[in-house]
Design goal:
Elements lengths: L13 E2 L2 E6 L10 H34 L2 H16 L14 H39 L2 H10 L1 H12 L5 H4 L2 H13 L5 E17 L3 H4 L2 E8 L1 H9 L10 E4 L4 E3 L2 E8 L2 E8 L2 H9 L5 E2 H12 L3 H14 L2 E4 L9 H9 L4 H19 L2 H22 L7 E7 L2 E4 L4 H14 L4 H17 L4 E3 H17 L6 H4 L5 H22 L5 E4 L20 E10 L2 E9 L9 H6 L4 H13 L3 E4 L20 H4 L3 E5 L4 E5 L5 E6 L10 H10 L8 H9 L6 E3 L1 E4 L2 E4 L2 E3 L11 H15 L4 E5 L13 H13 L3 E4 L3 H12 L5 E4 L11 E9 L14
Parallel strand pairs: 3-11, 3-12, 14-22, 16-23, 17-20
Antiparallel strand pairs: 1-28, 2-3, 2-28, 4-11, 5-9, 5-10, 6-7, 7-8, 13-18, 15-16, 15-28, 18-19, 19-20, 21-24, 22-23, 24-27, 25-26, 25-27
Helix pairs in contact: 1-2, 1-3, 1-26, 3-26, 4-5, 4-15, 5-7, 10-11, 11-12, 13-14, 14-15, 17-18, 18-24, 20-25
Protein name: Lantibiotic dehydratase N-terminal domain-containing protein
Length: about 850
C-alpha cells in the first residue's frame, strides 16, 4: 500500500477557530415567587438553629431520664423523642424546671413552627401567583410554535389551559404534563425547532463575552424543511423500475437474521411481513447496497462479477429483488440538496404533473410554517398532512412527511478573555477524560477480531466482511471483563495495559470524591494529570483526536455538560445556513480535517436514512456508494493495525460528517468511524464513587468536582427513602421538602437526572433495540425542578416515579429571570502522540 498520510503532515493541535453557540430563545422565569422563597429561607434558618440545639438538649434529657422514675421518666422520654425527631412536644411535657439546653431548643422549635405556619398561610396566594406565571410563560410564541411542530398533543393541552385560564378541572389535570414540558424547554440547549437557536462563531476580542451570549447574539431565520429520507422514500414510488439509470436501495425494513432475509411490504391499506432464504446472490446484493443507493445496471454487473456469472444473471437478481420489494427504486433526486422539494419538482415534475402540484402545495405550506404566526403554522401543518396523504396515494409508499425546523443565529465573534484559564483547564481535563474513550477499546478489539476472522496480513473488500466483523465485535465486547482482557485484545497486551491505567486513575479519583462526601466542592489539580495520555500504550496514541466539549459559563468557570466526538459532529447540519449568512465554518472544518488526517481524507456524504445527516459537502474528495464497494480493509502485521485503502491501493481515511450516532451507521461506515474517530466521553466519576461506597437508603450528597476552573461534575444528591413525596397538604409537603433540603444542603433549583449507563450497542443493530433505546432516553431526559415552588413540589413525585434510577444535581447555572439558557461547543484537536492544548488555531 502507498501514500500513508501520517508521513506527509504535521497536524495542528489546539482549540478550533469555530465555536458553536446553542441558545434557548425562551427567557428564563422561575415558577416560585420571591415571597414564598423568603419564607422558605426563614424555615431553613430556623430548622438549622433548632437542629444545632437538638443534641445538647437530648444529652441533658438523657441525664435526667437516668435519675427519674415512673410518670416523670415517661414524660422526659416523650420529650426526648420529640427533640430527637424534631416534633412539637406536648405542653404537658414542658413542665418547668427544664435544663437550659432544652429551653433553648423549645424556643427554636417554636420559631420553626411559626416559620412553617407562615408557609401555610402564604400557600393559597402563592398557588395562584404560580399559576399566573405559568400562564404568562406558556403564551411565548416560540414555545407554542415549537409545540405545534414537535408535540401537537401538548400544544392542544396548552391552548385549552390558556383558553380556560387554567380553571377547568380537566385542564388542571394537564398541569403536570405542561409543567414538565415547559420546565424542560426553558433550559433546553440542544437544537430542536424553536426550542434552541444555533449559530457558528469565530474567536475575537471584539466579540461578545462567553458569559453574555444571550444578550448579544443576533437572531436569524427559521429554516423549515421536510424530512429528506422520508420524502425521498415516498417519491421513489413515482419512479418506474424500468426507467434508464434507476437508482435502487434496500427497503428500510430489510433485516438478515438466522440465514433468512426479513422485510415488510405495503399492500393496499396493510403491511405484510415477508421472509426468504438468504441465498448467495442475495448476500452479494445486500453487501453491495450496505452504504446507500446504487444504479441498477451497475449493481447487477457487480453482483454478476461476485458470483462469476454473466451480467444478465446479475440483473435478474436485481429485478427479482425489485419485484418482491427487497429493493426499492429511488428518484434521481439529491437527498442532500438544500431544498429537496424544489429538487424533486425539477426532476419529476414534467413526468408527474399531479405530484408536481403536491410538491408546490408542500412548498407553500413549509414557507408558512417558517414565517407565519402560530395559528398559521398549525393550519400549514395540517396542509402538510393533507399533501402527505395524497402523495402516499400517488406513490403507494406510506410514510409520514415529518417537518423539521432549525432556528439560526447570525455568525458572530466571541471573546474568551475572561475564560482563557478555564479553556486551558478544559484542554487539560480532556487529557484525563479521553483516557476513557470507548474508541480505544474498539480499535484494539477490532484488530483482534479481524485477525481471528480473516488471518494476519489480510487485504479484503470491506463490504464483504463488515457485517460479520461488527457482529463478532459486539459479541466480544459484551463478554469483556477482567478475566477476558488478555484473550480479547491484541497480542501485545495493550488492552489490559489500557485498563490498568484507567483503574489506577479511577481509584484515585473515586477516593478523592468519597473523602469529600457531603462537602460542597473538591478540586482536582490539573498538574496531577498532566501527560496522563503518555502513559497509554503506543497503539492508543498514534491516532489524532478531536472532541467537542459542551460548556456553560458560570462566573469565571466553565461547566461541562457533555463531550462528543469533534470535527463538527454537533454543527454540520447548520453549515448551509452559516454559508448563506456569510460565515466560513465550512472552510474551517475542511482545513482542520486535512490538517488532522492529511490529503488522503475522504468524506462520506450519504444521508443514510437520517435527516440529521444532512449537510453541505465539506471535503473535495468523497466516497460514493459505488466507491465503497471497492474500499478495502487491510491488516498491517508489523504495526498490528487496521487501515482502509481505495481500489487503487491508496491508504485513505473516511470520515462521516453527519450528526447521526456512528453506532447507527451502516457497518462499513461504522468500521471506518471506529478506526479513526473519537467517541462520546461518558465516564461519571461521581456515580462510580456512589456505586463503590455501597451506601444505605438515606440521601447521600457528593461534592462538586472541579478541575482548575472547569466544573467537571456538578454537586449531586442521590435521594433516599427520606425524600418526602407527599404531605397532608401542599404546603405541609413543601415544608417537609424544604427541611429535607436543609438537612442535605440541596439548593432550590436542581435537575433530576439518570446516570449514564452502558448501552448494549449490539441491540442497536435491530430496529426494536433502537426503539427501546430512544424510549428510555425520552423517559430519562433531564428534568428541571424549582423546589421552592408549590407546583413543582406537587408534580415531583409523579415525575420521579416514571424515571429509572434518578439523582438531583445542582442547576448550575441556574434559571435567572429574563436571561436565556445557552451553551458553547468548543472543539479541541490533538495530533498523534501530542497533548490537548488551548492554543488557538486562528493565531500564528
Amino acid at each position: 500500500m502507498t501514500g500513508n498520510p501520517k508521513d506527509v503532515r504535521t497536524p495542528a493541535t489546539g482549540v478550533a477557530d469555530v465555536v458553536q453557540l446553542r441558545l434557548n430563545p425562551l427567557s428564563g422565569r422561575r415558577l416560585s415567587v420571591p415571597a414564598m422563597r423568603a419564607r422558605l429561607d426563614e424555615l431553613i434558618t430556623t430548622w438549622q438553629a433548632r437542629e444545632a440545639l437538638a443534641q445538647p438538649a437530648c444529652d441533658a434529657l438523657y441525664e435526667l431520664v437516668a435519675a427519674a422514675e415512673g410518670k416523670e421518666r415517661g414524660r422526659l422520654l416523650a420529650l426526648k423523642r420529640a427533640v430527637f425527631n424534631g416534633k412539637d412536644p406536648r405542653p404537658a411535657d414542658l413542665l418547668e424546671p427544664l435544663p437550659e439546653e432544652v429551653t433553648r431548643w423549645a424556643g427554636a422549635q417554636r420559631a420553626h413552627r411559626a416559620a412553617a405556619d407562615a408557609v401555610e398561610a402564604l400557600s393559597g396566594r402563592t398557588a395562584e401567583e404560580e399559576r399566573t406565571i405559568l400562564l404568562e410563560t406558556l403564551r411565548d410564541d416560540d414555545f407554542r410554535a415549537s409545540l405545534a411542530l414537535v408535540a401537537p398533543g401538548v400544544y392542544s393541552a396548552v391552548q385549552r389551559y390558556l383558553a380556560g385560564d387554567g380553571l377547568e378541572q380537566r385542564d388542571r389535570k394537564s398541569e403536570r404534563g405542561i409543567f414538565q414540558y415547559l420546565s424542560r424547554a426553558m433550559l433546553r440547549t440542544s437544537p430542536l425547532s424553536r426550542f434552541t437557536a444555533t449559530g457558528l462563531f469565530a474567536w475575537g476580542e471584539d466579540g461578545l463575552p462567553m458569559d453574555g451570549a444571550d444578550e448579544g447574539a443576533r437572531r436569524g431565520d427559521s429554516r423549515v424543511s421536510v424530512d429528506r429520507a422520508l420524502f425521498s422514500y415516498v417519491c421513489g414510488g413515482l419512479v418506474e423500475p424500468a426507467e434508464a439509470g434507476t437508482l435502487v436501495k434496500r427497503h428500510p425494513t430489510v433485516v438478515a437474521e438466522n440465514n433468512r432475509l426479513v422485510y415488510s411490504r405495503p399492500e393496499g391499506d396493510k403491511v405484510r411481513m415477508l421472509s426468504t432464504p438468504l441465498t448467495r446472490p442475495l448476500h452479494a446484493l445486500l453487501s453491495l447496497t450496505l452504504t446507500g443507493a446504487r444504479e441498477a445496471t451497475e449493481l447487477g454487473a457487480e453482483i454478476a462479477a461476485r458470483l462469476g456469472v454473466p451480467e444478465d444473471k446479475g440483473m435478474a437478481v436485481v429485478r427479482g429483488a425489485l419485484r418482491v420489494g427487497i429493493l426499492i427504486p429511488l428518484p434521481p433526486v439529491d437527498d442532500q440538496a438544500v431544498d429537496i422539494v424544489a429538487e424533486a419538482t425539477e426532476v419529476l415534475g414534467d413526468r408527474h404533473p399531479r405530484a408536481a402540484a403536491e410538491f408546490a402545495a408542500l412548498d407553500r405550506a413549509l414557507k408558512t410554517v417558517a414565517t407565519g404566526s402560530v395559528d398559521d403554522r398549525v393550519a400549514a401543518l395540517e396542509d402538510v398532512q393533507s399533501v402527505e396523504s395524497r402523495l402516499i396515494q400517488l406513490s403507494g409508499r406510506p410514510a409520514r412527511l415529518q417537518v423539521h425546523e432549525d432556528l439560526a443565529l447570525l455568525p458572530g465573534r466571541v471573546d474568551a478573555s475572561r475564560h482563557r484559564k478555564a479553556l486551558g483547564d478544559l484542554a487539560a481535563m480532556l487529557e484525563l477524560r479521553s483516557v476513557f474513550d470507548r474508541q480505544h477499546d474498539v480499535r484494539a478489539m477490532l484488530v483482534a477480531c479481524a485477525v481471528d476472522l480473516l488471518g494476519s496480513g489480510f487485504d479484503v473488500r470491506l463490504v464483504d466482511v463488515a457485517e460479520d466483523l461488527v457482529t463478532m465485535f459486539y459479541r466480544r465486547e459484551n463478554a469483556l471483563d477482567d478475566s477476558t482482557l488478555a484473550d480479547l485484545g491484541p497480542a501485545d497486551g495493550s488492552l489490559a495495559a489500557l485498563y490498568k491505567v484507567r483503574e489506577d486513575v479511577l481509584t484515585e479519583l473515586v477516593k478523592d470524591v468519597c473523602r469529600h462526601t457531603g462537602a460542597e466542592e473538591t478540586n482536582l489539580d490539573p498538574a496531577r494529570f498532566a501527560g496522563l495520555s503518555a502513559q497509554l500504550p503506543e497503539r492508543f496514541r498514534r491516532i489524532p483526536s478531536a472532541y467537542g466539549v459542551l460548556v456553560q459559563p458560570a462566573g469565571d468557570r466553565l461547566v461541562v455538560n457533555d463531550i462528543y466526538p469533534g470535527h463538527g459532529m454537533t454543527y454540520t447540519r447548520f453549515l448551509a445556513q452559516d454559508q448563506a449568512d456569510g460565515g466560513r465554518a465550512t472552510a474551517s472544518l475542511r482545513d482542520r480535517l486535512t490538517g488532522l488526517y492529511g490529503p488522503a481524507v475522504r468524506e462520506d456524504h450519504g444521508l443514510h436514512d437520517a435527516n440529521i445527516n444532512h449537510h453541505v459537502r465539506v471535503l473535495d474528495e468523497t466516497v460514493t456508494p459505488q466507491q465503497w464497494a471497492g474500499i478495502r480493509l487491510v491488516h498491517d502485521p508489523e504495526a498490528d493495525e487496521l487501515f482502509l485503502a481505495d481500489a487503487g491501493g491508496q491508504r485513505v481515511v473516511i470520515v462521516p460528517l453527519g450528526m447521526k450516532w456512528p453506532e447507527l451507521l451502516p457497518e462499513p461506515l461504522r468500521i471506518a468511524s471506529w478506526l479513526f474517530d473519537t467517541g462520546r466521553l461518558v465516564t461519571d466519576v461521581v456515580h462510580l464513587a456512589h456505586q463503590r461506597t455501597g451506601l444505605g437508603l438515606s440521601t447521600t450528597a457528593y461534592p462538586r468536582v472541579t478541575f482548575g476552573d472547569v466544573v467537571m461534575h456538578r454537586r449531586r444528591w442521590y435521594y433516599g427513602t427520606d425524600l418526602p413525596l407527599a404531605g397532608e397538604s401542599r404546603a405541609e409537603h413543601l415544608v417537609r421538602l424544604t427541611e429535607w433540603r436543609a438537612r442535605h444542603g440541596v439548593p432550590e433549583q436542581v435537575m433530576a437526572k439518570t446516570p449514564a449507563t452502558d448501552t448494549d450497542l449490539s441491540d442497536l443493530d435491530e430496529r426494536a433495540g433502537q426503539i427501546s433505546y430512544m424510549r428510555k432516553r425520552l423517559q430519562d431526559k433531564p428534568q428541571y425542578l424549582d423546589l421552592a415552588s408549590l407546583t413543582a413540589a406537587r408534580v415531583m413525585p409523579r415525575l420521579l416515579e416514571r424515571r429509572n434510577e434518578t439523582y438531583f444535581e445542582e442547576a448550575l447555572p441556574a434559571v435567572r429571570d429574563g436571561r436565556n439558557a445557552f451553551e458553547w461547543v468548543v472543539e479541541f484537536d490533538r495530533a498523534p502522540f501530542g497533548t490537548f492544548s488551548a492554543d488557538r488555531k486562528d493565531r500564528p
